[in-house]
Each structure stands twice: as structure tokens, then as C-alpha cells.
Amino acid sequence: MEYSTARLSDIINWVQKNRRDRFTDFLSMKDQKILLKLIAKHDDIDCRFDGGFKEAERKIACIYPSLLPIYDGEHFNVIKGIRINGDLTKLSHRDVLGSLLGLGIKREKIGDIIKRQEICDVIVHNDIADYVLMNLKKVGREKVIVSSIDLDEVIEPVIEYEDIKTTVASIRLDSIVASGFKISRTKASEMIKAGLTEVNWETNMSPSFEVKEGDIMSLRGYGRIKLQEVLGTSRKGRVYVHILKYK
Question: Which residues form the RNA-binding S4 domain (predicted)?
Fold first, then answer.
């Protein structure tokens, strides 16, 4: 579940009023962008993010008065690391998340989940760390052993991509989405207009939006792609592009 803009605004107002720092729960990339836009409206408020490791996507924000920067350590003390050991080879990231949510834990208390064959590291809020350690006995039908780990022990994820090198009529959003997810441009356009596409974690409903190198696009139900590079133009005017599709 995502934080609402109103909820983030309430936290900012609280920090302004009380002149003290305050932590959010884990925020999605979209929530982080919303928070930064809200913070930009205030000269006296700032924030810092931490997800437990450098490339984490889901992060907790510490919002604080600009004149009172508090945290100069590497990680917030409200973030903990948990390691799940067991035969996880037939289980997915979704299975791990489902088992955690099945304990009655809210999604916003859970950070990134990094699953390997027999190990899965989970970043969690300190509020629920002990509860998970005591109560998570199975993931799916597999028995597991859960232990606490230091954040510097977290095995960072290896992001794997499918390389797609192709030509498109233009670098409009509908063209890139169609090529990246291997669907028709008509279907891509319809899904974009329906609000099912995000560019850099913001909903974009314009098929004609011009995508830039480095932009990351997601299409609901299909995953995520990145326009890695525009390689040039063919004699017939088509554009060579290099797209990365996240596996």
C-alpha cells in the first residue's frame, strides 16, 4: 500500500510544528518522489532516505528541520535485517511477501526482499523485526529458519535484464512500451490511456510522451523496462534503441 500525499503532508506539518525529526515507514519509489516534491515547497524542512543497502528501492525517510540534521550514520536505527534460510528454490519473491503479510504485518513495514536459492534477506522496520523472528516458521509450505543479521551482511540483489535492441518509429512512450513488452502499439496506447503505465514511478497517460535515455517505465501486469540508449536513426527514419527489460 502506498502512502498518500495527505499522510506525507501531515508528517511534514508535524515536523514543522514540533521542530523534531520523524520517520516514515517504508516508501515506494513513487512515494519517495511525492515526498521530495512536497519537501521542495518548504525551505525549513529536509529529508534523508535509507533502505538498508545502497541500491534499495523501498526506503524509510527521516524528515527533519533543515537546521537540525540529525543522522550522520550509515543506516537509520529503525531498520533491521532478517535472513530466511530454507529450501526456497521453488518459491518466489511473492511467496515470501505473502508469508510475511500472512502474519498480519502491513506492507509499509517491509522493505526490499532479496531472494536467492536458499537464502532470502528481508529489510524490515524495527517495530516488527522481533515479531517476524518469533512467528515466521514457513514460506509457502516450506519450513524455514529465520535469524537477525547486520545490515552490512545483506546480500545485495543482482539485477538481471533482457537486452532488447530494435527499431521504433519514434521514442514516444507507446512505441517504447510496445517494443519493450512485445505488445502491439495499439494495445500499448490503450493501456497508457487507461493509467496503467508509470514513467519513473509517476503515472503517465500520454502515449505521445517523449521518453528519454535512462527513463524507467512500468506497465501493470507486464513488469518494468528501461530505455538504456538511443543508438541512431536508420535510412528509413526509424530509431535504433537499446531497451533493458527487468527479469
Answer: 171-231
Q: Is the pLDDT of residue 70 over 80?
A: no
Closest CA relative to residue 5, chosen from 53, 55, 39, 42: 39
We find that the CATH architecture of domain 5-65 is 2-Layer Sandwich (3.30)
Cα 46 to Cα 36: distance, rounded to the nearest angstrom: 9
Note the CATH architecture for domain 161-246.
Roll (3.10)
Residue at 53: amino acid letter:
F
Q: Average per-residue pLDDT in the chain?
A: 93
Q: Helix, strand, coil % (nearest 5) of the chain?
A: 30, 35, 40
Report residue 197's pLDDT band, with 50, 70 and 90 as the boundaries: very high
3-class DSSP assignment, residue 130: helix
Phi and psi of 181, rounded to 5°? -105, 5
